[in-house]
Write a structure and sequence with these properties.
The chain is α+β, with helices and mostly antiparallel strands. The protein folds into 2 domains: about 300 residues, no CATH class; about 120 residues. Helix content is about 20%, strand content about 30%. The protein contains 9 helices and 22 strands. Strands 2, 3, 5, 6, 7, 10, 13, 14, 16 and 17 form a 10-stranded mixed sheet that branches. Helix 5 crosses helix 7. About 35% of the residues are buried.
């Protein structure tokens, strides 16, 4: 359970629907995982691939552990209220609302058929590939058949520039406990408990960091660790001018009557919704919600909107300027460092001003915060200033995703690091 997706640009995942189906395999459990991803490219250039990191031994390559195709993954289609394909190849997908009585969520999309490749950093640096093998994690690059690229989102070609990708596979090792705990005596009285852990995207990257630190003790890898870190962080997952924001993140664990589900616990910006029977099956889906639509603190743009509203109300004039520490504390103490980083970025972008007293206040010429901070897919392209607003939006994303100097000391840097979640539970079976 869990996956981090990144690209060389600004990726906006409108919906990530993750499904986890445990199945009894002898004395142990194996999982089948399915990820339906609806996304758009908010960069100015096309993307040719996506990089995917998972915290277990997943789909190493197309020959050893292939992605599962239709009809074998058709079971997971229950999440669609509607799924139809037009003569032009455009597919209409409709999902239930996460709100009680809310309207269904619909997208017209272009389907991408993925092909698994090694990431470019492995090809350029065999040492990085060798070190990564020691982490027991999986990093792959996804390219797409028919030489498809991910075009920049265009509101006049919404369906053609909104993409749907399905990744379905059975990892070799899903969780952090290699084998379940066994209780009871005699072949008829034995039951097993499998502890399970699911991580959010940032938590997966943190897990990789921990595992690389552990490899420092190996003389075989010690000298190669700095280069591997540069390949995996500076040149990939935290590369300047790249970002991935997940707006709507839905996570399901699907169980049959063969399992007892115990002790669910969540840390971080994620919430348990409830359980629902899947129609015409003997399975139940338990659902959690995450993403910036539900937890604003996970997105720098949402924090920027909160900061701009606060400054408009409480620091309109230069005389009322507030320090970034004051602003961050007023927004939320839980995201203090991130709010400081975003305040600094808004100032460097000229959206708010910094006074002589090291405080920030409203920049009068930028009177419409709502439009300046709008996602490109919420704007009308016919507006005369569409390109200008879009450029400002992308410039802000670049600021948020880069390290900023926050003092006169060049060594003191700030970076936005989204708070992330962990889901823990136990599966009991005979």
């Amino acid at each position: 359970m869990c996956m981090k997706i990144h690209a060389n640009g600004h990726l906006c995942i409108k919906l990530l629907y993750e499904q986890n189906l445990p199945q009894i395999d002898g004395d142990t459990i194996k999982f089948r995982e399915c990820y339906d991803i609806i996304f758009r490219n908010f960069s100015k250039h096309p993307m040719t691939c996506l990089d995917v990191l998972t915290p277990h031994l997943g789909f190493k390559n197309a020959s050893s552990k292939p992605l599962i195709k239709y009809p074998e993954c058709e079971f997971f289609d229950w999440i669609f209220l509607q799924k139809t394909q037009g003569a032009d190849g455009i597919i209409h997908l409709e999902f239930p609302s996460t709100l009680s009585g809310g309207l269904p969520l619909g997208y017209d999309v272009t389907w991408l058929d993925p092909v698994i490749r090694d990431p470019e950093c492995f090809a350029k640096s065999p040492n990085t590939k060798a070190i990564f093998t020691g982490t027991d994690m999986t990093l792959v690059q996804l390219r797409f058949r028919k030489d498809r690229v991910i075009e920049t989102y265009d509101p006049n070609r919404e369906a053609e520039t909104t993409y749907w990708l399905r990744l379905c596979y059975e990892p070799e090792m899903n969780q952090y406990v290699a084998s379940p705990l066994q209780f009871g005596k005699g072949s008829k009285n034995i039951f097993r408990i499998q502890p399970c852990i699911g991580l959010g995207p940032q938590a997966i990257l943190d897990s990789l960091d921990i595992k690389l630190n552990a490899l420092k003790t190996s003389k075989k890898f010690e000298s190669f660790i700095p280069g591997a870190r540069s390949d995996l962080w500076e040149n990939l997952f935290t590369k300047d001018n790249t970002s991935t924001i997940i707006q709507d993140y839905r996570i399901n664990v699907i169980t049959t009557e063969k399992f007892i589900f115990l002790n669910p616990h969540v840390d971080g910006p994620c919430g348990y919704v409830g359980l629902d029977p899947i129609p015409n099956t003997n399975t139940i889906a338990r659902t959690w919600l995450a993403g910036s639509n539900n937890y604003l603190e996970t997105s720098p743009l949402e924090i920027a909107r909160q900061i701009s509203s606060y400054i408009f109300e409480w620091a309109y004039n230069k005389e009322d300027a507030k320090s970034k520490e004051h602003i961050a504390s007023a927004i939320s103490s839980e995201i203090y460092s991130n709010a400081c980083h975003v305040t600094e970025a808004l100032s460097q972008e000229g959206i708010i001003r910094e006074s002589d007293k090291a405080g920030f206040y409203y920049a009068v010429e930028h009177i419409d915060f709502a439009r300046i901070l709008s996602d490109p897919d919420t704007l009308d392209k016919s507006f005369a200033d569409y390109e200008q607003i879009r450029d400002r939006y992308l410039s802000l994303l670049n600021r948020f995703s880069s390290c900023l100097s926050v003092s006169k000391k060049p060594t003191k840097l700030s970076v936005f690091k989204p708070k992330d979640f962990r889901i823990q539970y136990e599966l009991v079976y005979v």
